[in-house]
Amino acid sequence: MPELPEVESLSRFLAEQLVGRTVDRVYPVAVHALKTYDPPITALEGRSFDAVTRHGKFLDLTAGDAHLVIHLARAGWVRWTEKMADAPPRPGKGPLALRVRLAADPDGDTGTGTGTGTGTDSGTGFDVTEAGTQKGLALYVVRDPLDVPGVARLGPDPFAPDFTLAAFTELLAGRRSQIKGVLRDQSVIAGIGNAYSDEILHAARMSPYKLATALTEDEIGTLYEAIGTTLADAVERSRGLPLRDLKSEKKSGLRVHGRKGEACPVCGDTIREVSFSSSAMQYCPTCQTGGKPLADRRMSRLLK
Fold it and tell me: Phi and psi for 289 in degrees, rounded to 5?
């Protein structure tokens, strides 16, 4: 699932490509992914993109007073192309959910700063795709991003100036939930999902089962620093990469998440996993739990 670092990298890439460009045609291929109808998605046609920003794990493409807000869910992605097919896409069972075709730039500028002045770049645009059979991709066209329920309920962004240690300490106060769940709760902190919560807790040398309310002042400070450095490092690793390489870069940069059975890069212990109904978390016993493996709750239920 794309999380804050990947969506941040997507937003930066799309901002470079889209700002100042005009939408020629919009093709909503997977109608089930479209969550709004007023204004219609065709209202984007003829408008120029003014900005591309991010709200947690939501992309926000602004065109005048309209916002195309995209939540990529578990398996969504954005694919940029300089040579888009002329024929409209056909609805079907493929991964394509939305196609946005850009109008030809009079100066021939493709958005990369290398225009030739030929004005022949009408095939430029992007696709929003979703792999797999579990469909969670969501597309919204709204006048205000806060009209999207998921955006309206977001907590503070870890990259925001007001996400200070004091603010983080206040967020944790009185929360008797396990810290893994707190980090993933989008209404507490925006943008962190399953993968980077594993990475942050490993960097902080903290058990995912530890209660947020039980953290000491020093532990809160360590966790706060781990959030900032882990996310910033992930964004920096992605800098300058083409969109097609962002997913593989994420996987290669993870130290514990998705690495069950491998050696911990810090201590050499074997990385363990706890499975849940629809996800799993990974951790290092030596680094995070005093050498004690955590109970796999799914297996525990099966053994009862």
Answer: -130, 25
Res 244 pLDDT > 90: no
Reading the block at residue 302, the tokens are 């099966």
The mean pLDDT of 35-53, rounded to a whole number, is 96
* Confidence label for 116 from pLDDT (cuts 50, 70 and 90): very low
Residues 99, 29 contacting (CB under 8 angstroms): yes
pLDDT at position 151 over 80: yes
Averaged pLDDT, 29-36: 94
Task: In whole angstroms, give the CA distance from residue 157 to residue 210.
Answer: 23
The predicted model gives 98-118 an average pLDDT of 63
Domain chopping of the chain, boundaries: 4-152, 165-303
**Which distant-in-sequence residues (6+ apart) come within 8 Å of 37 by Cβ?**
none
Angle among Cα 158, 167, 169 to the nearest 5 degrees reads: 105
**Contact status, residue 17 vs residue 112, Cβ threshold 8 Å:** yes
Residues 6 or more apart whose CB falls under 8 angstroms from that of 65 comprise: 143
3-class DSSP state of 243: helix
Domain 165-303 in this protein, CATH class = mainly alpha
Instruction: Return d(Cα 42, Cα 24) in angstroms, integer.
Output: 10
CB atoms closer than 10 angstroms to residue 38 = 8
Residue pLDDT, tens place only, 175-202: 999 999 999 999 999 999 999 999 999 9
Q: What type of residue is 135?
A: K
- At 15, give phi and psi (nearest 5°): -60, -40
User: Could you check whether 4-152 and 165-303 share the same CATH topology?
Assistant: no
